[in-house]
Amino acid sequence: MNLWDALIHLLNFVAPALALALTLPFWARLMARFSDGKQAVSHSWLAQAAINFVAGVVVLAAGLWFFGRDGKMVTYAALVLVLASVQWGMGRGWRR
């Protein structure tokens, strides 16, 4: 496998984490605006996306380590649950 192929594999591995990391802050702000009109945002959109991305890559790497391969639906379910929990924590969801 050459460097280009390795880069493509790495990008495909982190693509689900990146997609969720970029869309979760947007949807969280939109839902907060429609739910009660108040936004308890402690970080900027970019900071939230970066924190979500790092947490997502950790979950995907843990799934790869635990199962010995990537792409398991259990790993993707854990990815969604962990990133939703991280986003909830960044939005101070326990205070609502």
Explain how this protein is built.
This protein is mainly α and 96 residues long. It has one domain. It is 77% helix and 0% strand. The chain has three helices and no strands. The protein has helices at 3-35, 45-67, 73-90. Helix 1 (3-35) crosses helix 3 (73-90) and helix 2 (45-67) packs antiparallel against helix 3. The longest helix has 33 residues, at 3-35. It is elongated, with a radius of gyration of 15 Å.
Q: Which runs of at least 5 residues are low in confidence (pLDDT < 50)? A: none
The largest pleated sheet is described as: none
Using the CA coordinates, give the radius of gyration: 15 Å
Query: What percent of residues are in strands?
Result: under 5%
Number of helices: 3
Integer tally of domains? 1
**DSSP summary, beta strand count:** 0
Q: What is the general shape?
A: elongated
Question: Helical residue percent?
Answer: over 70%
Briefly note the structural class of the backbone.
Answer: mainly alpha
- The string of secondary-structure elements, in order, is HHH
> How many angstroms does the end-to-end distance come to?
50 Å
